[in-house]
Design a protein that fits this description.
2 copies of one chain form a homodimer. With 182 residues, chain A is an all-alpha fold. Chain A has a single domain, classed as Tetracycline Repressor, domain 2, CATH 1.10.357. Chain A contains 9 helices and no strands. In chain A, helix 1 crosses helix 6 and helix 6 crosses helix 7. At the A-B interface, helix 1, helix 6, helix 7, helix 8 and helix 9 of A face helix 6, helix 7, helix 8 and helix 9 of B. Chain A binds a DNA duplex (30 and 30 nucleotides) through helix 3.
DNA sequence: GCTACTGTACCGGCTGGACGGTACAGTAGC
DNA sequence: GCTACTGTACCGTCCAGCCGGTACAGTAGC
């Protein structure tokens, strides 16, 4: 009745998903100020009325984005756990892989969290806990796991503020090899 | 709540500085959306007319904030260079010292940079380069210096998204001791 | 096979309020 | 009389949310 497309993943991107994509993209590239309803609708090539048909308020748009993030996050944790190069390298690699859908969703959530929205912080905290669990379990050292996580956060931060250093990842790999974490 | 008044500061803070403090405080705690001219004036206990007497536009407010940041940054780099505990520990310590004026100014600049303002990115990039210079010079290892910087960025990121872990700093110290960087 | 109706998806104009900025008259203290 | 404000009134723009309307697919009744 209300939810018509939650069961199967259709290959064609639904309007709803396109709207969430557009919302995330605008949040990432221009901050929350740029992510107006008009801008989101235009970016998704939908009218404003069409947007508000799917999401009755901006708040619902945030809610929808965060829910989708959680789903993507669960999948990511699974991939991390079973990554052939090991969880640590997988984690670091995906921390600078700013092109992926998941990464964009993460940065968008960080923007929302910065606006004092507790839902954004909660969603990020849940993900961090899950990552830390895998990291900690794999390296068997809480201090090292937390440090690796901080490095990942630093890679994010640089990316989101336009300060990214292309050599950063190889430097980090070098240092982590010395610590026996890679 | 946010601590706007800290003991030990001179009681004679100029209206101009109070306005910049308020602007930074609002940017940090609520993002750029919360930092409206009305809100800044109210937080500084100045009328809107009074605000616009000092800063003729919001743009000038940003400019003033970034200029003050650069001054604070120059002083910080000096302090870092001559810190008794060494530049690395000083850098990490100040990365989590979210109560300081300088830290608030930094986070505020990051917010501005995220809104696609090149002046914000430039100010942060200049500071990062200065820090990296001191770090790199001290540890004599580019990869390690960059990694330490990323850890510092990670500590910031966590702080700004409300994900701060109180044990993070001691964990990092532990790991850096293993690397001979502390 | 036609009518009447329902639900889904979407369009685009509109409004009220917030926000950036202007203008200016007044005033307290040096 | 100058600096450093206060307070009020106002303007244009932007934005969230609302609403009336369109198109169309399905379907129930006759």
């Amino acid at each position: 009745m209300i939810c018509t497309m939650s069961a199967g993943r259709a290959p064609e991107r639904s309007t709803r998903d396109r709207l969430l994509d557009a919302f995330e993209g605008l949040l990432v590239s221009g901050g929350s100020r740029a992510a107006t309803l008009d801008a989101v609708a235009a970016a998704a090539e939908v009218s404003k009325g069409g947007l508000l048909y799917h999401f009755h308020s901006k708040d619902e748009l945030v809610e929808g984005m965060l829910t989708r993030l959680q789903e993507q996050g669960d999948a990511d944790v699974e991939k991390m756990r079973s990554a052939p190069q090991g969880p640590v390298d997988f984690y670091l690699e995906t921390s600078v892989d700013s092109g992926s859908d998941f990464d964009r969703a993460l940065i968008a959530a960080a923007r929302v969290a910065q606006e004092n929205d507790p839902r954004g912080s909660a969603a990020l905290a849940a993900l961090r806990d899950a990552w830390f669990g895998v990291l900690s379990e794999h390296v068997g050292d809480e201090a090292l796991a937390r440090t690796i996580q901080l490095i990942g956060d630093g890679l994010y931060f640089d990316d989101t503020t336009g300060l990214a250093d292309p050599n950063a990842l190889s430097h980090v790999r070098d240092v982590l090899r010395r610590l026996g974490a890679l």
